[in-house]
Design goal:
Elements (H helix, E strand, L loop, with lengths): L1 H32 L2 H11 L8 H16 L7 H16 L5 H21 L3 H14 L4 H13 L3 H14 L5 E8 L5 E4 L2 H10 L2 E9 L3 H14 L3 H14 L4 H13 L3 H14 L4 H13 L3 H14 L4 H12 L2 H10 L4 H31 L4 H13 L3 H16 L2
InterPro entries: CellSynth/LPSAsmb/PSIAsmb, TPR-like_helical_dom_sf, TPR_rpt
Keywords: Repeat, TPR repeat
Protein name: Tetratricopeptide repeat-containing protein
Length: 418
């Protein structure tokens, strides 16, 4: 009697195992057809007895589960994509030779979903998906970089710090060559997956103007962001330590010096900022943006002549740098304040009246000194309403009413077209 009972139980297990294998096989066929819901139904039938399946069957189960969850890859819930990545990794652990392809499919779906999240400014979700994609393949460090950037945008500084420090420890630089060409239909320059792909598209006539563009090192940016996160957390000493450590490891990286300068700028230490920026400019003296930034810091330190000198050097290298011209005019006009303050302290004596007239002329000279720079702005940017409005006010102060009225009309036209 006992033997018969045992035989009956064994027979039942055999039937269940056979049914389970059948459901897994059916799930695979459903995936091949693109009927992902049917695949999920078959997998649900097989799941209760999965522990009794052999390793090969379990590997199939997890592979099909991953594909069923990824589906077409469009509008897939984040939870399904995350579950799919786990399923593919399990299939890989069980030795399924097709698991790497599934991991690639899940990664692509995660990245596409992350891009959609970015476009919707759902940065937290984008960061989560990009990190999950990186976690699938640790070689895809660029996804970790973008995960960190999205975490920053989401205000999740703890995660961002973790990601950036991992990038730093990995020695990630982000340096690469991007293969680009112009789409003849849209006129937009696009980045291609490889040189071979780009050259093939250009040969087809669909793209023109192929170019190889080198992406600059991101080490400086990463170090700066680590430091700035520490600043955001109120840990300024750690911020400086992080920057110093990055400089020790990359002493020739000019971007790190720039980032260090930016750090001190954010801390409000303009003197230290300028010291470092002068070192940066010494290594890259033909960079008008660096000279412009030195002009800004000098102006904030109250060093007007030095600020103008830097702005003028920047304009020598880039005559179309409108902001430099505007800032020169602003620095010149800032000399008006102490003149006005002294004028307001004077009384009505003969000496005071004489001094008042002298100061009034000094004030007019300040105005006259700013005009050529504002005219230079309008010559290159006729729609700059701020420059036009400032010139209008200056002409009124100089009692040049006709010019003031002309500029007033110009300001009205510009404002109407905004």
């Amino acid at each position: 009697m006992r033997t018969r009972i045992l035989t009956a139980v064994l027979a039942m297990v055999t039937v269940v195992a056979f049914a389970q294998k059948r459901e897994i096989r059916r799930a695979g066929k459903a995936v091949e057809k693109g009927d992902y819901q049917e695949a999920k139904n078959h997998l649900a039938e097989a799941e209760p007895q999965l522990s009794g399946a052999n390793q090969s069957q379990q590997a199939d189960y997890y592979l099909y589960k991953g594909y069923a969850l990824v589906g077409s890859g469009e509008n897939v819930p984040a939870s399904d994509l995350m579950a799919a990545t786990e399923a593919f990794k399990k299939a890989e652990e069980l030795g399924h030779e097709e698991a790497p392809q599934g991991i690639t499919a899940a990664s692509n779906a995660l990245v596409n979903a992350a891009i959609a999240d970015q476009n919707e400014q759902n940065f937290e979700s984008a960061a989560e998906k990009l990190y999950a994609s990186y976690d699938l393949n640790k070689q895809d460090t660029l996804y970790l970089y973008y995960a960190a950037a999205n975490a920053i945008n989401a205000g999740n500084y703890d995660n961002a710090l973790e990601y950036y420090e991992e990038l730093r420890d990995l020695g990630f630089s982000g340096e690469s060559v991007q293969y680009t060409a112009v789409n003849t239909e849209t006129g937009e320059r696009e980045v291609m997956g490889s040189k071979e792909q780009r050259d093939l598209f250009v040969k087809s006539g669909d793209y023109t103007d192929p170019q190889d563009e080198k992406a600059e090192s991101k080490r400086g940016e990463i170090a700066k962001n680590i430091a700035l996160i520490y600043m955001e957390k109120g840990e300024s000493e750690k911020a400086i330590e992080a920057m110093d450590a990055a400089k020790r490891e990359n002493p020739d990286d000019l971007s790190l010096l720039q980032s260090e300068a930016d750090l001190y700028y954010s801390m409000g230490d303009m003197q230290k900022y300028r010291e470092i920026m002068e070192e940066v400019v010494a290594q890259d003296p033909e960079n008008p943006v660096l000279l412009y930034n030195l002009g800004v810091s000098s102006a904030q330190l109250g060093e007007r002549d030095r600020a103008i000198e830097y702005y003028e050097k920047a304009l020598e290298l880039d005559p179309d740098m409108t902001n430099a011209r505007i800032n020169i005019a602003q620095v010149i006009l800032s000399r008006e304040q102490p003149i006005v303050e002294e004028m307001n302290t004077l009384g009505t004596s003969k000496e005071d009246n004489q001094r008042y007239d002298e100061l009034a002329e000094e004030r007019r000279e300040v105005y006259r000194g700013a005009i050529p720079h504002l005219e230079g702005v309008l010559e290159r940017d006729a729609t700059n309403v701020d420059a036009a409005r400032t010139m209008m006010n200056i002409y009124y102060q100089l009692n040049e009413t006709e010019k003031a009225e002309e500029m007033k009309q110009k300001v009205s036209e510009l404002e109407a077209n905004q």
